[in-house]
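Q: Please design a sequence for this.
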């Protein structure tokens, strides 16, 4: 029996999936993580959530959402585009004593920094097909977030955390590490998901640095890294011709015959600060 005043317990996730016809859709990048031990671990990687307001993107049937509700978070706001999943999450919200809000929207169009009060975090198993643009959007306003704890395809996670000189190092590495301390904290095999994807997944935590660039400098860095890595086989004298080429590199004391993947985050920062605001 349910104790007097206690919220009713949600039904098993597989029952929820069956009742709402929640077969994962490839077009939405959906792969559901139903293992409560794994979702609990993801939540633990986000740190102490007491008093924090959490945004979850793409909750699906609510596996990670349940772990978030079991945490000390002050509130959870779930953003979901799939009407079938919204119905399932609204059922879960009815058991959550007002701590879970559901928003029907495309997360790419939502300003998460204004959605909930600070201190705010994003914790999500991101839909594969929009994970990178979502991340870049949040990086543009990184100072608004205490932490981002996000699941990606492992290949994307490796790019985010890659070191200079590695084959995975690129534009996403620079933008992420310029603004945040980025760490890969979990690897999850395909068999953990329903349906299993063809690749491994990984969880990355991104903790914004105390000091953040203004919007103009961020836009300049976007332009710089797009040019530098757009033709990564070229030497910088060629790939950066559109933004100053050899003159810019001399000013920054960077050899023009180097390639983009050899530059450190500090060297990209130096170059961006020498360029006029975009």
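A: Design:
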């Amino acid at each position: 029996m349910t104790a007097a005043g206690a919220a009713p317990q949600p039904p098993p996730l597989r029952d929820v999936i069956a009742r709402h016809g929640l077969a994962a859709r490839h077009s939405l990048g959906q792969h559901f993580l139903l293992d409560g031990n794994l979702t609990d671990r993801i939540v633990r990687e986000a740190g102490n959530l007491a008093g924090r307001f959490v945004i979850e993107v793409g909750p699906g049937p609510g596996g990670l959402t349940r772990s978030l509700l079991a945490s000390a978070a002050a509130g959870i706001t779930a953003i979901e585009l799939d009407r079938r999943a919204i119905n399932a999450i609204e059922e879960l919200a009815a058991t959550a004593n007002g701590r879970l809000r559901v928003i029907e929207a495309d997360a790419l169009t939502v300003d998460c920094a204004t959605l909930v009060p600070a201190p705010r975090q994003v914790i999500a198993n991101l839909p594969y097909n929009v994970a990178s643009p979502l991340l870049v959007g949040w990086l543009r306003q990184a100072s608004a977030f205490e932490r981002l704890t996000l699941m990606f395809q492992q290949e994307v996670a490796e790019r985010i955390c890659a070191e200079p000189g590695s084959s995975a190092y690129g534009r996403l590495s620079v933008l992420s590490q310029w603004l945040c301390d980025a760490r890969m904290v979990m690897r999850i095999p395909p068999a953990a998901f329903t349906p299993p994807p063809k690749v491994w997944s990984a969880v990355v935590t991104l903790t914004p640095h105390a000091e953040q660039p203004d919007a103009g400098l961020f836009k300049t860095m976007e332009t710089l890294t797009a040019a530098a890595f757009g033709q990564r086989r070229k030497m910088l004298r060629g790939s950066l011709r559109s933004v100053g080429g050899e003159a810019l590199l001399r000013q920054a004391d960077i050899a023009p015959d180097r390639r983009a993947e050899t530059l450190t985050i500090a060297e990209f920062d130096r170059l961006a600060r020498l360029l006029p605001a975009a």
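Q: Thanks. Anything notable?
A: Residues 190 and 199 are 6 Å apart (CA to CA). The mean pLDDT is 92.
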